[in-house]
Amino acid sequence: MDGKHMQIGEVAARTELSLRTIRHYEETGLVIPSARSQGGFRLFTEHDVARLMVIRRMKPLGFTLDQMRDLLDATDRLDADRGALGADEREALVERIRAYQQSAAEQVGELRVQLSRAEDFEATLRARVTPPPTPSPAPTPSPTTRD
After folding, report:
1. Which residues pair with 42 in a beta bridge?
2. Is-contact 17 47, C-beta < 8 A?
3. Are the CB atoms for 89 and 73 separated by under 8 Å?
4. Can you point out the beta strands (E) in 3-99?
5. How far apart are CA 145 and CA 147, in angstroms?
6. pTM for the whole structure
7. pLDDT digit of tens for each residue in the chain (147 aa)?
8. Cα-based torsion angle of the residue sequence 20, 6, 79, 22 in order, rounded to the nearest 10 degrees
């Protein structure tokens, strides 16, 4: 192997996705291994890893597989046809991507609200199980010496 390709295990470690999940994304057409080894093992490139990271970041925001596919298609077309796209087609692709960016921003806002509520809840529970600090005894006055 020339160092440009990675086997699925390395890709799984780098993306923190399971082998099963990567294979599922392959079956659904979201990512296709760039090559196969002589033994038939899937081989991935940095581009494939970047693609999987986009998918991984979209999933917790509630995007569907079809939406992931649509966004990846738009970004692939923008990247591949930089000079070949007409201005209208390029603007339409950028608009598609912008819509996903706006949707992601909305989801992030909702997640921030949920996180804030979860942190408040955890703090409430922590206060219930953490004993209150015991007051320190008042210092005893020291006897004064008379001359």
Report:
1. 36
2. no
3. no
4. 6-7, 35-36, 42-44
5. 7
6. 0.76
7. 445 899 999 999 999 999 999 999 999 999 998 888 888 888 999 999 999 999 999 999 999 999 999 999 999 999 887 678 888 999 999 999 999 999 999 999 999 999 999 999 999 999 999 888 878 777 777 766 665
8. 0
